[in-house]
Specification:
This protein is of the alpha+beta class and 122 residues long. It is 25% helix and 35% strand. The protein starts with a helix and ends with a strand.
């Protein structure tokens, strides 16, 4: 389960940014459907590891945008949720991936003495 190692790396990165003794309130991610990352598995691993590391019980909010592809045969750009779908115009399976492989930490919110302070970045 690579979601466990991904959650560990995210928490190391976040801890480096916020320092010790602060609790996470919310973590916002973007995970594309072609990234190979299970949002549910990552959410479970992240929540458990954050609690074990004394970072609280943050909400892990995952945005899952559709994948965007361009057909190499007819040039149509289209969105899919499953990579096994062919071009809706010509049925071709030859295409270029424009987006959908993202796995990005978009922003975090930390408990800052009663008022959440937002930090953004990748």
């Amino acid at each position: 389960m690579h979601e466990l190692s991904l959650a560990e790396e995210m928490l190391v990165m976040i801890s480096d940014v916020i320092g010790s003794g602060r609790r996470l309130e919310r973590v916002n991610l973007v995970i594309g459907p072609l990234s190979g990352v299970s949002a549910d598995s990552l959410r479970f691993c992240f929540t458990e590891l954050a609690a074990m590391r004394g970072l609280g019980s943050p909400d892990l909010v995952v945005e899952e945008p559709p994948a965007s592809l361009r057909c190499r045969s007819c040039g149509l750009s289209y969105e899919v949720h499953e990579f096994v779908e062919g071009c809706p115009a010509c049925g071709s399976m030859e295409r270029d991936i424009l987006s959908g492989m993202e796995c990005m930490l978009e922003s975090i919110e930390v408990d800052d003495g009663g008022r959440p302070a937002e930090r953004s970045g990748s």
